[in-house]
Amino acid sequence: MSQTFYKKGFLALAVATALGVSSYVQADVKIGVAGPMTGANAAFGEQYMKGAQAAADKINAAGGVNGEKIVLVKGDDACEPKQAVAVANRLVDQDKVIGVVGHFCSSNTIPASEVYDEAGVIAITPGSTNPQVTERGLSAMFRMCGRDDQQGIVDVLKGKKVAVLHDKDTYGQGLADATKAQLEKRGVKPVLYEGLTRGEKDFSAVVTKIRSTGADVVYFGGLHPEAGPLVRQLREQGLKDVKFMSDDGIVTDELVATAGGAQYVDGVYMTFGADPRLLPESKAVVEAFRKAGTEPEGYTLYAYASLEALAAGFNGAKSNKGEDAAKWLKANPVKTVMGEKKWDSKGDLTVSDYVVYQWDKDGKYHQLEKQK
Q1: Taking the model in full, what pTM does it have?
Q2: 315: phi then psi, degrees, rounded to nearest 5
Q3: Any signal peptide, and if so, which residues (predicted)?
Q4: Which of 141, 165, 299, 365 could make an S-S bridge to 357, C-beta 3.0–4.6 Å?
């Protein structure tokens, strides 16, 4: 063997070895984004994906997660609990995700999180507000939003006769129960407490009941596919002066479509976190979304911040293990597009910023004031 050939061979081996190491360092890490990508609540899944993808692009440009590129894996649970469990098992067993941004409906997040917990996968939900999401002792379940017992009805309505309705789901009924508890604590007993059925469109019977009670406020715990038709039928049947309030399940322009027009949502109140689009930390990101033709409404920036938190946890712990990232997040604040966030031992935010919004005649919502 000639010396020249030996040197070339050695050089080739060194290059191949270097490339092998480089390939390993630049390998992909998978993070799931789970929520309703199809079905009546697909608007929220779309918000999740847009926010998470924008965050992944920015994080990857800055070096990724421990030197590895983030690849997002979509999980469509359609807000159906059984489907959520199937999605969770696929993300864990087949896709080998190291973290999850999701789910949306609390009735999905709760069973899916059991799967993640058993697998040691960290999850952050941008939108599930039922207290039980973080009250079960799971070590790696977090929220980027508040809880049902932190929103509910507010003094701005000053209602004396309040009808409380819900959609019989974990999320909607949880909010209705929290609202009912707040009212009773203030000495106001609801004049009506009743459940609707998801997918139902004819609410004539319940509107008749509301009319008979003389309610001056209707609170609905649920999502926009039912809230829209409900408020429209209230208005069409003459209850135009009855104040209508709901929750962060209607924080999408789809509410206007399901109600049949902006004239029906005019004056509707809702509770949601302080608008992250107004924060100085989000200015550049919001401008980038708008330049691309997308308005980062609703949970878009919540999903963005959730992925930022996951990346910060993995990078801070210098580990791609969910348990390590979870421990790091509970001990360290994280700077996100929604400002600095801190979590308690349960995985809840240490500060909740729910405020009141009102929809206008143009079908847009605007922040009113801080909740008392």
Answers
A1: 0.81
A2: -65, -40
A3: 1-27
A4: 365
